[in-house]
Batch of 2 targets.
Target 1
Amino acid sequence: MAKLKFGLVGGGYGAFIGQVHRMAAELDGLAELVCGVFSSEPERSQQAGTELYHLPSARAYPTTSAMFAAEQQLLDHERMDFVIIATPNHMHYPIACEALRSGFHVMCDKPATHSLAEALALQEQIQQSDRIFGLTHNYTGYAMVREARELVRSGALGVVRRVNCEYLQGWLAQAEDDNKQAQWRTDPQRAGAAGCFGDIGSHAENLVSFVTDLEIEQLCADLTTFVDGRALDDDGNVLLRLQGGAKGVISASQIALGKENDLRLQVFGTKASLEWQQADANSLTVRSADKPLAVHRSGWAGTTSQAIAATRIPAGHPEGYIEAFAQLYRDFCLTLLGNDSAALFPTIADGVRGMRFIERVVASSKAGGQWLSFVE
Amino acid sequence: MAKLKFGLVGGGYGAFIGQVHRMAAELDGLAELVCGVFSSEPERSQQAGTELYHLPSARAYPTTSAMFAAEQQLLDHERMDFVIIATPNHMHYPIACEALRSGFHVMCDKPATHSLAEALALQEQIQQSDRIFGLTHNYTGYAMVREARELVRSGALGVVRRVNCEYLQGWLAQAEDDNKQAQWRTDPQRAGAAGCFGDIGSHAENLVSFVTDLEIEQLCADLTTFVDGRALDDDGNVLLRLQGGAKGVISASQIALGKENDLRLQVFGTKASLEWQQADANSLTVRSADKPLAVHRSGWAGTTSQAIAATRIPAGHPEGYIEAFAQLYRDFCLTLLGNDSAALFPTIADGVRGMRFIERVVASSKAGGQWLSFVE
Amino acid sequence: MAKLKFGLVGGGYGAFIGQVHRMAAELDGLAELVCGVFSSEPERSQQAGTELYHLPSARAYPTTSAMFAAEQQLLDHERMDFVIIATPNHMHYPIACEALRSGFHVMCDKPATHSLAEALALQEQIQQSDRIFGLTHNYTGYAMVREARELVRSGALGVVRRVNCEYLQGWLAQAEDDNKQAQWRTDPQRAGAAGCFGDIGSHAENLVSFVTDLEIEQLCADLTTFVDGRALDDDGNVLLRLQGGAKGVISASQIALGKENDLRLQVFGTKASLEWQQADANSLTVRSADKPLAVHRSGWAGTTSQAIAATRIPAGHPEGYIEAFAQLYRDFCLTLLGNDSAALFPTIADGVRGMRFIERVVASSKAGGQWLSFVE
Amino acid sequence: MAKLKFGLVGGGYGAFIGQVHRMAAELDGLAELVCGVFSSEPERSQQAGTELYHLPSARAYPTTSAMFAAEQQLLDHERMDFVIIATPNHMHYPIACEALRSGFHVMCDKPATHSLAEALALQEQIQQSDRIFGLTHNYTGYAMVREARELVRSGALGVVRRVNCEYLQGWLAQAEDDNKQAQWRTDPQRAGAAGCFGDIGSHAENLVSFVTDLEIEQLCADLTTFVDGRALDDDGNVLLRLQGGAKGVISASQIALGKENDLRLQVFGTKASLEWQQADANSLTVRSADKPLAVHRSGWAGTTSQAIAATRIPAGHPEGYIEAFAQLYRDFCLTLLGNDSAALFPTIADGVRGMRFIERVVASSKAGGQWLSFVE
């Protein structure tokens, strides 16, 4: 059985997340990069393809349309099977549509699209196609995040009452005029309606949903733009009223000076509670009223089958961000290969919900911090 | 020079905080317990005084009025100098007034009173007296909390932009019908307008104020009562808009199952940020953009004079809750002894602000989570 | 019932541990300081007694013999019940003997004496007296250290195979000529045969013994004096062969630059293992092969009765060094009061074993790191 | 520029480390697996090659000699460039020799060989060849381990005085008769003279050497076999006397029940000290006498160029075991590609020193724990 083949859009010079997608997609030996478009400038795309990715120049395409057209012509065992979209947000929708129309599966970076309207339109296109669409909310790939989800689903927590999720970064605490990564994330034309909440608030929402499976009923948001001249929010706090009476808070910031990628989730139920943070990603703290605190560890005894399935190496040998990201690709590839029994990668349903979250948060904040229903 | 002498109201059988006050007040050798009222039942008060506190029975008084009257008659070197009020909230105001009228200084447990109106009235009485009134928001006594305050005041953080403060407990996750401590805290007659937010949300507000010195301009609160039949909130989240444009979140819960006394503060400025948590009370994490993370430690090099003044023993020998509590008593006693240069104990100003916080939080929540000005 | 009364020898100007003894002995309200000798210079003793300890000048004695003579004359309800010896090591033996002969119980700082010979002589004197002698190996007072001991004794660890104990400090990394605390600890006349191993290596040995109850059969030591001109060891490592085939390592250092008071114990058995460190003193990590890691916490559910008995306040409100120290005094006082059911304070047996450890470690190291039997 | 090509020996069904080598070698996109021998049974080798590694069956070779012969015949752009040896220890030497003779570079798992004699012989062969030989002491690939090394080399620590290195595992605490990984590691025929010290004690020695660059002058070892019937040590402690007067301890165990892969290094100098542990691999704690503790973090400001070069993703997105392992392959590949300016991968010099360490530790222990010179 040969490996699956994929193309990559994005990930050129000065990019960060493109190489992560490549490493993640290839890690488990199920797939290999065979082509791509690495810049909106045709010449730079070809140069990056050969220099950064060691591709033959013929498959470092100048444009996505050239790529899709050319790859369609190739024989089965040569042609790419899926395309990874790792571009700024505004390009997700057109490229995803083009890929689906051309018959390719899609793995897309988050948030799904530039707007909720686009996400809904994309959802429709996906439903009408027979292609698979995955969304890389990569934190859901950590073994201990999956452990958290399983513990909630198993009833070990009882009824969930409270959820706190923080995602705090500090890298945009000052205006960073010459940082390519910063530029597009703070530009409404490329990022969408929200800055910080599009980029990382959406991860927090996804994590809350993935682990608790509770729908947001109402929210109240207070977003801020702290850096002068910035067009989008760089910080915010959102109160949540969740299905069944649970309450929550999501805090996200890109001006939390000194914070790295501090993603932290706490879920409190009537029987037990959970705490996880990316800084100690291989641990999940489980608390209850009548027992000593327990720490579930990746690869150690006493974890759920979902956690075991997402662990590659023995306990105490840490698995990190790339491995978690790779878990989504593993699930995605196994699904493409026909084995989708346990595939947990996020899909367009997450994408639509995430885009709705972004738009409702922005609307609530613009209304002065009013409580809004999640679905109008 | 003899020690100062104090009486204690509260702290009888089944109490918790009374003994803590006694240990804290005596720790530094500046004061000693000489009398008290340890129950609202005269006989039990006398029994507790001799059994629990080894007092002569003559000074285990049946009532506070008996105590104040008798102590006034004693000679200077025998009479108590101050009284500690460690009763349920509704008794703070009448006892404090009685003490002040009788010429005794007062150290009072928090929150200051049963209502904002009482706090304002008490403030007036204090202003008209020449007695000292202290309020035991004890977390402000930790050396590393004082370090945090000093770093903010020194400008080391630049302008504060964001504050997160969580105080999460789980001990009231179920109805605890036979727990004396739980009973009065969930009874509006004794606790006041708020349950969780009166008991510990008020500590969080005080900590934010102590460290940042920023006034709250507006707040939006969502309180919940999760346990059936409980009359007061047992959980809540509050969004803050602070003076100068900073934003904040206070989360407090007594149904956060498995949480002990998880008090955690984060303050983010334009130059640096701070993180402190009670679970690691002797450390203060200081982050900035251009240097490795620093951990300031109680008793170690590189801390401020305020932190040094609040540290008793060499670094690495942890100081805990009692020592922090004792720091307020040390400041208070030194003030009574005429040396008030560095006294940092909370006063009625904190008490009034704290009661206003409680009342505004309750009002916002009752209005469906509306934004309210802090001062009407 | 009145409090017990005690005198203090040591703890004058520039001292550290004397005040800790006083705070610890008084913390639980069972005892109070009534007299003492606070300097070898009579005038300074009297000054310190009144200034530092607020004693009447009559009971700030010029010498220990004056104190013992005068206190013997007092009435029962005024006379001290026990004396605390908090002097440099060479004074422990003569003062303890004097106290016992004068009819006073003794609480003595560690190590027990200046030499093994003295410790054996003291043991004999104690056996011939009806007075109680306690030794303040204070780390045995931590609730989670007692939890560790109980878990070992209960069989929860199975058979102990390996023990690691580190006590690392950095405060003597340079010659500190003007530091009173450093001076006597590095002076063989006052400290004894060992420097670092007398001061803190002995604590490590005591902790290993307290928790595992295993006798040392053989040891091999390699001590070092890193700082030029210092007369005693300031660092060392010792291999242990313990009763029943277990193995161990004790590392102690006072030149481990940047280390505070890093005391860390690991015990590995056939069924489970334990890890405790002073920096996180309220936690005890328990590991086993087939379950998630558990963290036993002071004051939380699932701990042993010995741990509960050594805990004063609710979980999450940290108890520190002074509280642990106070636990020994609580046990000691309860024993004096006739309730010795659960008294766990170290005695002269620990003192003799500890002095033997110091002497054998020094002998092994002087012999080039030879293996020696623990008992000659 | 095409990727480098490699073959893999080992890594078949039930193996662990083979896939790790494959993931690590491919992670940075510099190399790809093209062939291998995955079992000593020819048929299983072919099956594993196609099933586990998606190789064409022609390049899943039955034997290493078949592989080397066939690959030599291929054209430059098809032929493997290097071979990875991931077999039990006794096969390292013959396969490495065969590879070198056949003109292939070698990346070999540790320890280098089955005996010191073999290591010395291999060293000679390597010196006589023009091929590159690397040894996967993978912990040297962590960014923060490299940071530690750089800080020592820069003089930031002053003179090193003390080193503590622990590598504690618990997975062999019981006899595990049916575990393939356990079987060969406890079999002298396949593992060599030492069990635990061959498998992980050697990693500890390498880490000490890599970071401090200090030679061992003398050592004293006490090894133990705790599990009945086991032929090799499963636990041990070693005292070290290092070049320049520094002292050290290495503890390694595979019966430290409940421990995962707890590798922890502490280095104390005259100016500063370091602490690193695999459980928190992206942090390096730096302590000094006159400043707050600093935590250097992978990807954050204030780290050395060597650490930056070994970091792929932004701070706070943890990099783990596979990424560290991959760092050695990156260095190795860059060296093969002609850019060896900063290559830090271990070589046969480490292999020879490591085998000498194993043999001297065993000799010292067999002599009852005698001090031995490191080089006879």
Target 2
Amino acid sequence: MKLASEVDAVTIENEFINPDGLAAIEKCGHLLLPSTATLRLIQDKFVQKETLAKAGLSMPPYAAVSSVADLQRIGKEFGWPLVLKKRRNSYDGKGNFTVRSEAEATEGWKQLDGERNALYAEAFCPFERELAVILTRSRDGQHAVYPVVETVQKNHICHVVRAPADVSASLAAEARRLATKAVESIEGVGTFGIELFLTKDGKVLVNEIAPRVHNSGHYTIEGCVCSQFENHVRAVLGWPLGSTQMVASAAVMVNLLGASKGPGQPNGVGEALEIPGAHVHVYGKAVSVTGRKMGHVTALGNNVAEAEKIAQDAAAHIIFGATA
Amino acid sequence: MKLASEVDAVTIENEFINPDGLAAIEKCGHLLLPSTATLRLIQDKFVQKETLAKAGLSMPPYAAVSSVADLQRIGKEFGWPLVLKKRRNSYDGKGNFTVRSEAEATEGWKQLDGERNALYAEAFCPFERELAVILTRSRDGQHAVYPVVETVQKNHICHVVRAPADVSASLAAEARRLATKAVESIEGVGTFGIELFLTKDGKVLVNEIAPRVHNSGHYTIEGCVCSQFENHVRAVLGWPLGSTQMVASAAVMVNLLGASKGPGQPNGVGEALEIPGAHVHVYGKAVSVTGRKMGHVTALGNNVAEAEKIAQDAAAHIIFGATA
């Protein structure tokens, strides 16, 4: 409340905030963007699915899960494996459990503590690739839509983002259309990351929306005329949105993940900086944890392969969590 | 001393700091870059000239001035007009006075308070254009030299920077050679701005060095692979220097100067942001003063004219110091 009374607008960089607390800011007439109405439609991922489905967006089948028996019934309907998820506070695979058979339903329910957490299930989507679109929506409903990118995930964590994605113009257009519709359906203002599946039969499905600047958009800092961060600020402040055009033919971002538990300062930054064109970002987190996002490297190039080689070469030098 | 004991290195963004105070940091074994030895050779502009002259660099004639009679004698030698300057704490034309004739010598002496301030005189250089080079020098003497740019000054204040300067390859090489030698002569570590004159007979002369990131290098934020700011940090921390290559054919920066005394928040930012490709920087200074540097706009383009149109169009909208 003190912050809100001193600034033009309040925004968030993390969606795991109690909306009831944030609502107090709005009640006093301060500007909060994205609004708690938008956040309420996002934070509960089952509600998010319902909202997107109502807007006519295609997505893998999903269902709320209220018991082990319920989960077993849904598994029969969707087929095994399916992904059991917490409705709230899950990210980067935390709060997800892949249930491979009816026999594993009890294990999944226990792992995610179904007695205490609201859960839902999603049919496993046999996707060919994962795509993402960063999109900024202004207060007056204008959209700045960034290029469709390909994201490479391992263990539910984003490792690499390739911009632009190597997909046909019509698939790219469909991905951008879905992303736009998704953010419209929640009346989002600011920058949003929309994760999509490209299925093996060439369909684009919405996976989920993040109501904030997104890992799949970090490449826009060097790669686009106006970054996802600047456009977020522009949107929240009611300013016109900036160009989402790329400044090079291709950009690739490689995440720097904690290799082990240890100090947050990396080794190898000097070696990484030897590589021309490698843009090294270290987040300054105090502690490295295995798999934790500690930084990223972006490189531009004439094509994705060229940019990826630079980014990967630099990233390979940087180790988080090792003792010096 | 408290800061120095908590960090890897201390650097400066302003050269008007008492070097005796800074020397205490060095005496305790902390790293200060650029060093006080470098700063002492820069802060007194007469000493700076002497140092550059000793290194064999060409520059307009100059002389220390100890009295009005001295100034009149120097004027006879150099010819009128000449530029009378304070040896210390002068920038953006503050501390400069152009003496147009022997009769004006007394006025110049009074304006700059020669009884209290050490002064020197420089022959007026009938330059065709002003050039500048940003250069970062590493702890081990490596140089990252940025493209030669043209700077357009009015009333001794930089208004526009055009990158690259429209000069021949041999002139550009000479400008970069002089800049490199200048920073070597003061054993500078970090980013330096070297201002140069291109004379009407096609010679390049050194005007002065700033021991810090420089206004003529702000275009490198969007215009070059590695900005003058990142390279400064790299140099000071002992990391390898980044590429100074431009990411577009041309970049132009236009300064945003205070139009009058008033609040530091500008009008017209929204209109400026409507212009695609205009990168608007507002420094957040509390108060606008006529002619004070309050921000800048950079634009990239296929040529300087294209970039300059975008930057000027955007800059024209932004007014500092007017009441809303």
